[in-house]
What we know:
The protein is mainly α and 254 residues long. The protein has helices spanning 2-23, 29-57, 60-77, 97-108, 112-142, 147-163, 165-178, 181-204, 206-213, 215-233, 237-247.
Amino acid sequence: MLALRSVGSAFHVPAMQASIPLLAPKSELGRVAGVNQVINSVSTIAGPALAALMITTMDMTHVMAVDIAGAIIACSSLLMVHIPNPEKTVNAAQPHVFREMHDGLKAIFSSKGMIWLFWFVVLANFFIMPIAVMFPLMTIDHFEGSTWQMSIIEIAWGIGMMAGAIYHASFTVVMQTTIKAEALGRAFAIYGSATMLPSMIGLLNTGLIADTIGVNNAFIVSGIMIILIGVVSFFIPAINALINKTATIPVHED
């Protein structure tokens, strides 16, 4: 079921991100991306608490039925939304998987600043994902905490993600304003795949990392590396030029 859900997300997430510039003006893309990220963060915070409440008061079959009902509501709501298709070239080639991948990579690598930004995001995810799954080990083994304290840490992680809506929204807007609309879905799909692959490599080595250097040292090393990635990015001229170009988009005053 998780595999099928991941397959669906592989189509859903890039399509949703590519549809936003077709529905909202460029001056509002930052706000839309911010709202979307806040919704995801709130879901991360409220999800575990709501799940714990439902599991303790409802049968598991009913809990799964709630998930299905939510999916039906979400899919049905799309029937009321018209999403325009981006304009296609006159002699557009027939869709092909490898051609689509090539077009997505070409769209991302068309900007030198986007190349740097893309690889920095991939590296950051490589160090973040193993740490995300080590929180229970850090709470229970290192700090000798309890299960409810582990839940508090997960909620705090969600709050931290909400504070980082700033980053995710900004990166999304940079891609939406730098890459052409007809190639945006492919670019987001390539971005999602490229960030997930090193994350999976990091996750597979989580146990080895924890046993070799210890959970607490893994947190320290990953934290230092993520900070270095953020600091170094400020000294890359191509990234600064890309951000300055995005900042020139006019913003409507309220």
